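Chain A, query sequence.
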Amino acid sequence: MIITSLFDSMPQLGGPGLPSVALCMVLAGGLDPTSDLRPTRVGVRDIVASLGEGHAMFRATVAPSLAYAALFAVIGGILFLALELLSIAPLSVSAAGGFVLLGPALLAGFFAIADRHERGRKPTLADVWQGFCTMPRGGWVVSFVCALLLLIWLTDAGTLYGFMVGQVPQGFGEFLRAHATVMNFLAFSSLMGAGLAFILFCVSAFSIPLIHDRRANLVSGVVASVRAVFSRFPVMMCWALLIAGVMLLSAWLLPLLLYALPTMAYTSRAFYHRVFPQT
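Chain A, predicted structure.
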C-alpha cells in the first residue's frame, strides 16, 4: 500500500502523464504496485453464480434500480425516434453499441445502491447521485475514457455510414429489409466497434469497481484489470461477450433495458468480488 500511496501523491507533482511514467519507474525497479491485487482463478461457473447474485440484488433493490435504468431507456427511445425521423435507422445499431461503451461509466450509481442495501439500509434514487459524488477521481478518469471512446465510435460509424450508405433514406422499415449496402455497413462498423469495446473492457472491467471500493487508484486499478483479463482470457471473453450481447439486445428492445441494465451492473459487481475477493 505504500506504493499505492506514492501513486496517489505523484500526480500533484507533474502533468497528467506522470502516473504512467511513475508506473514504468516502479516496475523497472522490480516493484509491483498491484502486488496485493492478484486475480484468483475463475471459471464459467463463477459467471453463472454471479448472474444469480445480480438478479437477487435487482429484486432486493427493484425500485431505485428501475428508476435509474428508466432514465436511459427514455433517452434511448428519444434517440431511436430521432434516427427514424432523420431516416438513418441503420445507425441505431451503432447507437446501441455505443451504449455498451458508455456502460462502465454508469456503474457508480448501481454500486452505490448495492452498497447501501448491504449495509442494511433501504436504498433510494438519491444514492445514485451520492455514488457519483463520492467516486474517486480515478473513476472519473476511466469514465472520461469511456466517453472519449464513445465519441470516437459514433464519429467513425457516422463517417462509414456516409461512405457506404450515403444519402439513401433508411427508416426502420427499409432497414429491416436488410439491403446489401446496409449489411456491409453493419459488418465493417461491428469490426471497428469490437476493437474499441475490447480495449475498454480490458481497462475498465475491474478498474472501476476496484477504484469505487478504494482498493486501488487509477494506475494500479487499470493494471490489475488488464492482468485479470489476460490471466483467464477464455473466461473473460465469455464474460465480455455476455455483457455485449445482453446490452446490445436490451438497447434494441428498450423495455428489456429496465431489467438488463441493473442486473448486469450488479452481476459485474458480484463477478468482480469473485475475481478480486476481499481479504
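The two ends are 14 Å apart (CA to CA). The CA atoms of residues 1 and 33 lie 8 Å apart.
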